[in-house]
Specification:
Distance between the termini: 41 Å
Mean pLDDT: 83
Order of helices and strands: HEEEEEEEEEEEEEEEEHHH
Number of strands: 16
Helix content: 10-25%
Low-confidence stretches: 2-34
Largest sheet: 9 strands, mixed
Radius of gyration: 21 Å
Shape: flat
Structural class: alpha+beta
Number of domains: 1
């Protein structure tokens, strides 16, 4: 494992040197017969007038276990997801990042969370069963700041706001849903009475991801 990680670090270093000297705009990270395509892009320059971030993870440098679509498994120590651009990126320097071809990624595991790539976007996997799956998606919007005409200054800054959307996947169809008892009973319509009894018994909080996971898991077991 240490040898493989050493090769990955070495290849990244070689590629960074090549990018700096030849200004190449495309790069492939190769370990054995595994390839991850992508391109070099200028590092995202945050708008200092807007609070917050367009990135999913607060820390770029973490241990990411990745399963590629070709079933190869790798580890990366620097990765983030740009929610606004729907891109997976590694920050190699302050002025340059490597933007991966997101559709080459299948799953990303970070600590206790699993993320799934579907249709060019990254979703958090809430539950993945045999019959049904549940995912959480992410959207970035901007709340404008407030200008004070008396002082001719901004009394509050504009902010990036992260919103979450929920989806279930049944028969390979991904459908957005609102987290309410009414909507969930529609999703589980073939087991409606059993699910309704379970909800009443366990007093599920539909705004809680763990409770939502348990409910989907219960339905999947029926």
């Amino acid at each position: 494992m240490n040898k493989i990680l050493g090769i990955i670090v070495l290849l990244f270093s070689i590629t960074i040197h090549s990018q700096n000297t030849k200004h190449s705009d495309e790069f492939q990270n190769v370990v054995g017969n595994m390839k991850i395509a992508g391109m070099w892009i200028p590092s995202y320059k945050a708008d200092q007038s807007i609070e917050g971030s367009v990135y999913l993870f607060s820390n770029w440098e973490q241990l990411f276990d990745i399963e590629l679509t070709n079933k190869m498994n790798i580890r990366l120590y620097n990765l983030n997801y740009n929610i606004q651009q729907k891109t997976l990126e590694s920050k190699i320097s302050n002025d340059s990042v490597y933007q991966f071809e997101i559709n080459n990624f299948d799953r990303i595991k970070l600590i206790n969370n699993t993320y799934k790539v579907n249709n060019g976007s990254l979703y958090q996997e809430i539950f993945a069963g045999n019959k049904i799956k549940c995912y959480k998606g992410f959207i970035i919007s901007t709340t404008p700041g407030v200008f004070n005409p008396l002082t001719q200054t901004m009394s509050s800054q504009a902010k990036y706001v992260r919103n979450e959307t929920y989806y279930y996947m049944l028969n390979e169809q991904m459908v957005e849903f609102k987290r309410s008892k009414k909507n969930l009973l529609k999703i589980f319509s073939d087991k409606k009475e059993i699910i309704e009894s379970e909800i009443k018994k366990k007093k599920y909080d539909f705004d809680n991801d763990d409770d939502l996971r348990q409910l989907f898991q219960f339905y999947d077991s029926l």
